[in-house]
Amino acid sequence: MDPVDFLQSDDLLSDEERAIGQSVRDYARAELAPHVSDWYESGTIPVEIARGLGKLGLLGMHLEGYGCANTTATAYGVACRELEAIDSGLRSLVSVQGSLAMFAIHHWGTEQHRQEWLPRMATGDAIGCFGLTEADAGSDPGSMRTHAKRDGDDWILNGSKMWITNGTIASVAIVWAQTDTGIRGFVVPTDSPGFKAHEIGRKLSLRASVTAELSLDDVRLPSSAVFPDVRGLKGPLSCLNEARYGILWGAVGAARACLCEALEYSLLRTQFGKPLAAFQLTQRKLADMSIAVANAALTAVQLGRLKDTHCITPEQISHGKLANVRSALEVARTARAVLGAAGITLDHSVMRHMNNLETVATYEGTEEMHTLSIGRALTGIAVFR
Ligand code: TGC
Ligand code: FAD
């Protein structure tokens, strides 16, 4: 019996998906896990790790062509799970690169955008970021103020974006802006005059990840910089579907890691003359965590299958993101309690995961946004505003 896979959900994966999971797990445990608490403590993540992730084929993993691995969506999910078992910041790096920036270029870009950026992004030689949120437009991105105006054939972009993962390490930013014909997406090389990125400090969560504010001050772009065929929020939201899908798998990894650590600790730590695991109250915590982890894993596999058969809906992705992140956060908090005082340090992973999951519950749509999305699907009534 595998304590972190009580219902044997991994049996539902193909041999290839399991093999991909194993190789990501081996790589992450050997190359990333030994450093992650230091990165978290120092509030950074070395950009060089992107090349290692690229070599493994994890960047733009389920995209076709341009040096991308073209795996199943389920295999991509399994990779997210193994990365987030180490730290949510690692999965974030891969999500933003592959599901947001590369997906946007692959799906909405021109052939010229794809040729120019995707091969370098797949190897990790170029990093991308995705600028949708603004200081005054988070859950309601339709109220963004960043705008693009025509000047002859060129576009001139002005505005700012807030909370942008990978912002200071990116070579290319996908920036969403208001135009005369609705919200449109722009491919912005970050060395464009007028483009600046400032790192956001003092974070208590997702510290092994770079988060930035972008400012665009009369950034002049050629007419070819715009995504030609998409207008309105469905452009960015189609990319969010991809990233939210990766998150619902990633949350399973963080939750498994917390359960694993709590179980090990409870068997070793003795109080009142016996291991913590020998108390009924501890066993209840372990059983509750195991149930939450197993349910989240099954949810992920089912949504993976729906995505691989092109049957998944945005509301089902909302369900998975909300349910799995909520469960993972609950598991992390319980695991933290099992470890007592030891649980608050970086010598263990539980509080790092717990703090990270606070961000994961917020970005890519808060719990409230996904609740309203499910509510709308059930009732037919939209109550976002
Ligand atoms: P609403 O009127 O519902 O929709 C506007 C248009 O968008 C379409 N749409 C979608 N299309 C594709 N996928 C989806 N999931 C979609 N949801 C909506 C919709 O059909 C409509 O199209 P059309 O053709 O009629 O114009 O929008 P609203 O203004 O009422 O707002 C609601 C909404 C959907 C924006 C809100 O529920 C929401 O999702 N807010 C959350 C915003 C968000 O998730 N931001 C994430 C920013 S990126 C990020 O966090 C990256 S973290 C990266 C990391 O480090 O991992
Ligand atoms: P707000 O929208 O101000 O919401 C605050 C609270 O009010 C939330 O609880 C929310 O659910 C609630 N609320 C809002 N509206 C309603 C309503 N109608 N009904 C009920 N409750 C409501 N964005 C990007 O574009 N790119 C990135 O790469 C990116 N990376 C991020 C990295 C980190 C570390 C973080 C923390 C955020 C990142 N984000 C990114 C931004 C993220 O997507 C937003 O923080 C998120 O969408 C929520 O927006 P907000 O923080 O402005 O909260």
From TrEMBL:
Pathway: Amino-acid metabolism; tryptophan metabolism; Amino-acid metabolism; lysine degradation. Keywords: FAD, Flavoprotein, Oxidoreductase, Transit peptide. Pfam families: Acyl-CoA_dh_1, Acyl-CoA_dh_M, Acyl-CoA_dh_N. Coiled coil: none annotated. The keyword Oxidoreductase applies. It catalyses: glutaryl-CoA + oxidized [electron-transfer flavoprotein] + 2 H(+) = (2E)-butenoyl-CoA + reduced [electron-transfer flavoprotein] + CO2; a 2,3-saturated acyl-CoA + A = a 2,3-dehydroacyl-CoA + AH2. InterPro entries: Acyl-CoA_DH_CS, Acyl-CoA_Oxase/DH_mid-dom, Acyl-CoA_Oxase/DH_mid-dom_sf, AcylCo_DH-like_C, AcylCo_DH/oxidase_C, AcylCoA_DH/ox_N, AcylCoA_DH/ox_N_sf, AcylCoA_DH/oxidase_NM_dom_sf. The keyword Metal-binding does not apply. Residues 231-378 form the Acyl-CoA dehydrogenase/oxidase C-terminal domain. GO terms for biological process: fatty acid beta-oxidation using acyl-CoA dehydrogenase; fatty-acyl-CoA biosynthetic process. Its cofactor is FAD. Its EC number is 1.3.8.6. It comes from the Bacteria. It is an enzyme of class 1 (oxidoreductase). Residues 129-219 form the Acyl-CoA oxidase/dehydrogenase middle domain. Residues 14-125 form the Acyl-CoA dehydrogenase/oxidase N-terminal domain. One of its GO terms (molecular function) is flavin adenine dinucleotide binding. Belongs to the acyl-CoA dehydrogenase family. This is glutaryl-CoA dehydrogenase (ETF). It comes from Mycobacterium florentinum.
